[in-house]
Write a structure and sequence with these properties.
The protein is mainly beta. 11% of the residues lie in helices and 35% in strands. Strands 1-10-11-12-13 form a five-stranded antiparallel sheet, with no helix packed on it. Strands 2-16-4-3-15 form a five-stranded mixed sheet.
Length: 367
């Protein structure tokens, strides 16, 4: 069940009556005349504007220092731009939902919606202007609605699309941001930076305010007011990969069994890896104690114009049949003729089925 004390800290709605709120009020300078969705689909999640505080000046620390408070199975979001690699632990993002940052030289918004399990990073430059994002306190189809502080347009986190305001209809570019276990991140990127718990806010980091949420049969009905697509259980995780030419989702139940899927999306050869050892952030009261749900990586499976096909050879290890090179779940070749080469990562997410189905109803499903 949901941790009620933690919900009070977050300001989450605890009653059905608290769920609905008017889209317009004096606190907003948003142009509500410009919208791409019906405004009545947007409901209050409980907190007011910025009631869940985004992090605007994030602090970072070394892997060695973060290892004092992060446990091996904890999930972290990984953002890598050139030689700048950073980990954003979900034990922090679950309380703040948005981090405005610059990685390498690229302004990014690192976001996480716990109700949908959508961990997504966007380029936050729009029409040459760098936007800063905060939380509206509203949800649409149970998903976080963000706003930019420059125009106060409202943005759908699950799609990166502006749905209300002067930017309505525009989309933020989605960047590759895999989830990894802290153990694997620590081993793979020992010199990286890690988002610090020194956030300027007092939160019980490491505690899960959504205890047993992903064990529910359905999402919260007061936030998700549509029928769940019956092809899968509502809370099944999918590895969702999108390109300009289409979208495809792979069920975690399939991936956990096969460990690797070779496929093609809009003519592009892709591969999806699954690795065990990653705790659900939405299960146990202490986040690190969540059950093992694993994590995924998605990549273009072409190297030097040659299409590779992969097979699993052990936990977190894969081999391409063409050169017999061995690869890890980050798309790095560890041994063989292609040693030290890297596959190009693809933007993808691991949402719950109910939200993927409502935002991408026509996407191909592999199960």
């Amino acid at each position: 069940m949901i941790d009620r004390a933690a919900c009070v800290t977050l300001g989450l709605a605890l009653t059905v009556g608290a769920a609905r709120a008017p889209a317009q009020s004096t606190e907003w300078r948003t142009d509500f005349s410009r919208a791409t969705v019906p405004l009545e689909e947007i409901v209050s999640g409980g907190p007011p504007k910025d009631g869940i505080a985004a992090l605007d000046e994030p602090r970072f620390e070394s892997v060695a220092r973060a290892d004092r408070w992060l446990q091996d199975p904890e999930p972290v979001m990984v953002v890598a731009m050139d030689d700048d690699v950073r980990a954003y632990p979900l034990q922090i993002l679950i309380w703040h939902e948005i981090v405005n940052d610059v990685v390498g030289s690229r302004p990014v918004a690192v976001t996480y919606c716990p109700l949908c399990n959508t961990a997504m990073t966007f380029d936050r430059t729009v029409n040459g202007v760098v936007l800063d994002f905060g939380t509206t306190g509203r949800l649409r189809h149970s998903d976080l609605v963000m706003y930019d502080r420059q125009t106060e347009s409202w943005w759908q986190q699950a799609t990166g699309e502006a749905i209300v305001g002067v930017h309505a209809g525009q989309r933020l570019p989605l960047l590759a941001t895999p989830l990894m276990s802290w153990r694997d991140f620590r081993r793979t990127y020992p010199e990286a930076l890690v988002l610090s718990r020194d956030t300027g806010h007092s939160r019980p980091y490491g505690r899960n305010p959504y205890s047993r949420y992903d064990g529910r049969r359905t999402p919260f009905e007061r936030f998700f007011r549509r029928s769940v697509d019956p092809r899968l259980p509502a809370m099944e995780r999918v590895a969702a990969v999108e390109s300009s030419g289409g979208a495809v989702g792979y069920t975690f139940s399939l991936l956990a069994q096969q460990r690797v899927v070779n496929d093609t999306l809009a003519g592009q050869p892709i591969v999806v890896f699954w690795t065990p050892g990653v705790a659900s952030a939405l299960d146990a009261a202490e986040l690190a104690g969540g059950r093992d749900v694993g994590a995924t990586g998605a990549f273009d499976r072409r190297v030097d114009g040659r299409v590779l096909s992969f097979e699993a050879v052990g936990d977190g290890r894969f081999r391409d049949r063409e050169t017999q090179s061995e690869w890890d779940a980050t798309g790095r070749a560890l041994a063989g003729p292609l040693a030290l080469r890297r596959l190009v990562p693809l933007p993808h997410t691991n949402p719950f089925w109910f939200v993927w189905a409502v935002f991408r109803p026509d996407a191909r499903l592999v199960r």
